[in-house]
Amino acid sequence: MATQQTTTSGRLLVAPSVILLFVWMIVPLAMTLYFSIEHYSLLDPTAIRFVGLQNYVYFLSNPNFVAALLNTLILVGWVLAITVGGGILVALLMDQQIVGQNVLRLMVIAPFFVMPTVSALVWKNLLMNPISGLFAWVALELGLTPIDWFTNWPMLSVIMVVSWEWLPFASLILLTALQSLDEEQKEAAELDGAGPISFFVYIVLPHIARAITVVILIETIYLLGVFAEIFVTTNGGPGVATTNIAFLVYKRALLDFDVGGASAGGVVAVVLANIVAIFLMRIVGKNLEA
Amino acid sequence: MARKQSTRKRIGMTILAWLVGFLIFLPILWTFLTSFKSELDAFSMPPKFLFFHWTTENYAEVQSRSNYLLFATNSIVLSIGANLVGLLIAVPAAWSMAFAPGKRTKDLLMWMLSTKMMPGVGVLVPIYLLFRDFHLLDNRLGIGFVLLMLNLPILIWMLYTYFKEIPVDILEAARMDGASLFNEIVYVLTPMSIPGIASTMLLAIILSWNEAFWTLNLTTFNAAPLTAFIASYSAPEGLFWAKLSAASTLAIAPILVLGWFSQKQLVRGLTFGAVK
Fold this sequence. Notes:
CATH class of the largest domain in chain B: Mainly Alpha
CATH topology of the domain at 74-256 and 276-289 in chain A: MetI-like fold
CATH superfamily of the domain at 74-256 and 276-289 in chain A: MetI-like
Oligomer: heterodimer
Number of strands of chain A: 2
Low-confidence stretches of chain B: none
Mean pLDDT of chain A: 88
Mean pLDDT of chain B: 87
């Protein structure tokens, strides 16, 4: 096993990664914490002074924060519901004996590889435009009035775009989990006369429960930080209708030049993400032991 | 009888699955089709599906409008460059964690994973200010460093799980024969894990290519990759759908192909080995 020599070289070889990641993470995070208790505006960078928790009070008591927090929760919640629910259905469907399964798999996974700015702009213009988008055409064919999605239903529109981006991820991971279900177990359940619903509830669901948890946690971490889709479609508006925490912090920092306030917001975002991260780390950590 | 029914079920499932797959893929297909239309056809109602005058003029215009090639070059240089450097740092680290683990190795792995949980906005302000002071805004080195750091934990994790599958005896045999550590990693370990390294790189390149928080915030033109290039189409300017579609097709086509090759490793890489 590991000799004294390999242990020493092991430490040397892992050191660059550790140092780099430390510099990348701890240093800026410490700076964010420091800025968050200072009055610091880029418009007047010489007037930096200690203000204690004032930035936090200001950030948290601002009605925009409450709106942004709610928007974040709505966005994350709905996208999770749609992608996990839809992902289970798609995965169950793909797990059947289907002609041309490999090609179909490629089509289903494709949206995941589309960069966020492209998905958002294609959906906004080519699909959801109220005058000549594809959805407007479908509505007209069905005798309905086309919907002006991004004007009248801005948050729903963002949810639709982001769900389309993440549905493949959920489907692919749940399909992978489904495929590891024992063939004999399926046959045994069939012989015992289990109907499709009880088969799903008592055999399939417990088998993929862990994968579902992993999908939820990983998606949540990314969904808390949704930015580009909002940036290129609604710019957080109308008003603050589609401003989430990430976008609010961005606005405070790079549009209002309020370093202190934005840093306080950044700390709030870190705390939110950490609550989710702790659960994910526990699951991955358990897997590492096994 | 039973046999016949299962055939019928199979046909039904196949039709249903293809329908669902088609709907999921439709936005991409539609973008591709629209990129070959004239702007008038792209805007026509009812939409023209296949019977329109096919043209490639949008692709030429995308280049002349905003210098597509510069952005494409940035995307290629950044996503490949950052991850090649990342690989040089990650392979030794993953070797040490897989073959010379210490008491703290697992904690270290978890800590590296935890850096991925950090939301970008949590460190946006200091990174932006530091980059401004060091003249790294809109600089390939600057954004390249960020992309490298974003992927480093994933590179190490994926390589670690691949290295774990390699029998340690082989490396020890090489050591017995007097191979130096450098030779052991470069001439024994690396060739044996080429498939793992390749799929790790593939996933990392895809993630860098599509990264759109830091690229939008830290680059404007000189170092801006295709994510920022596409974002410049967010301000409507007359009829622009066909051009937007052409630009989008150009931006996603290469990575879509890479993505399709790497889909099996995707699950492993994105779930940090929690789902295999």
